[in-house]
Amino acid sequence: MFKTLIFTIIFSDFLVSFWVTTDACYLYENHYATHKIRLEECDSDGYTTFNLTKADTLLVPKEDSKNFIINYYRTQEDAINNQQPILTYQNTIEGAQGNEQLHARITNRTTHEIHYHTIALYINYPPDIVSESIEILCDNIGTLLLDAGFNTAINASDYDFLWSTESTASEIQVTTPGLYSVLVTNKATGCSAYREIEVVSSGPAKTIQVDIDNRNARITVEGAGFYQFAIETDGVLSSYQESNVFSKLSTGAHTVYIKDSNGCLPIRTKEILIIDIPEFFTPNGDGINDSWQVDGLGADDMKNALIYIFDKHGKLIKQVVIDGSGWDGTYNGNPLPKSQYWYLIEFGNKKIKGSFTLLR
């Protein structure tokens, strides 16, 4: 039986191994390469598991790989002694910018010549982009520009872009709501990041209707957006609110403002008129609140206005003229009972309706 002993002498940049058998002695110069092999991975937090076999083609041409045995080790000593080989490695230094090194042992299957290489580990970070976002497509504009969502200024020529629309531009124009995505790849490192964008339709108010009950205004809006409301009185604009109701408004002219919560412009406005309408009257002949009449408006405001009074069954009780004395609580000269009555005021293309109480 033949026995083999191996002796290794380590010099500064190469190794000499003696293979001694019972019938021969072989001398090999086993080089330790002075340059380092750079093994790179992509990861966003600076820590990852390296698949060391990815370095195989960096050490030996792929077409020659069957002629070599390649093993990896944590230390130079393990590589020289061919002990504790590893296939993967989890870096312990964040980013691992060459500060962590492993060792490769390449053995020629035919000549048994051995070469050693240092493997320097590097982690490259993927493109710094916003991974998810919601963007607003204003229906009155019709187009929206989408970008890759970089958090810092970049040179677009350093990156490749592949959109879900198959565009390879750094930005795309879209005209319909929906889900869009882009894969951004750093040309230098090969690291990629994925961004998903939900495009939502919105827009300014298209139609506005204001219903006024006494001094309360309710605003009804049609449109693609979600809206906030404010009201201007005597040149002072209130804070915007989500409620579409304004209560206890002062008499006179007001301007209602309706804005899209998503920022689509313009802000819409509508003029409204709050009339001083009594909530009750007491026709008892004491000279106080003996008649019901709409007050607070000049002739120009209410030119050609018509005021109708109905009972709770919808029967027309009285038509009141603006410059008259109002309604005295009678029907055909007979006093009507204590009850709630309804009014309808029409002027121009406006209608105001509400109720009041006759007290006895």
UniProtKB/TrEMBL annotation:
Pfam families: CHU_C (PF13585). InterPro entries: T9SS_type_B (IPR026341). It comes from the Bacteria. NCBIfam families: Bac_Flav_CTERM (TIGR04131). This is Gliding motility-associated-like protein. It comes from Aquimarina intermedia. The lineage of its organism: Bacteria, Pseudomonadati, Bacteroidota, Flavobacteriia, Flavobacteriales.
